[in-house]
Specification:
Strand content: 35-45%
Order of helices and strands: EEEEEHEEH
Largest sheet: 7 strands, antiparallel
Shape: globular
Structural class: alpha+beta
Strand order of the largest sheet: 1-2-5-4-3-6-7
Oligomer: single chain
Number of helices: 2
Length: 146
Amino acid sequence: ENFYEIPDFTIIIKKNKGGDMRIRLDNKVLYEYDDSENDANYVSVDIIVDNGEMLTYGGQIYGVNDDETRVYLSSNEGGPKLIDIIVEMQNGSELFVRTTGAKSPIVFKYSLSGFDSGFEKLLDSWKSCCKEIKNPFDSKNPFDQY
């Protein structure tokens, strides 16, 4: 609703010990980035999976280029955490995202088909990365073969 393209709903989990997570809407210009002193770069982001409870987050707009802005989601104090979105998405079939800024609210719908298996693969990859892995190059002298 109120928009003619669908941005990417991106979940980023860093491969570090904490598995730091960021969620963003990107790959389209959702709102113009305001680099003036007015700084109107904040939106409200509401999320509903299927017909469940609404999760409300803050969103900050970042300029990327002429074809893209990014809206990073943040947890409001006392509100739901970002991981709550993933918990809801694992058992859902549709994700609805509403952003409300200076203009009329914009609503996007995403299919969650395959999300659970994709998330499991991502989680397994993160766990594998964080294991203590011995680098075989540290114990081999490349000049031993000559």
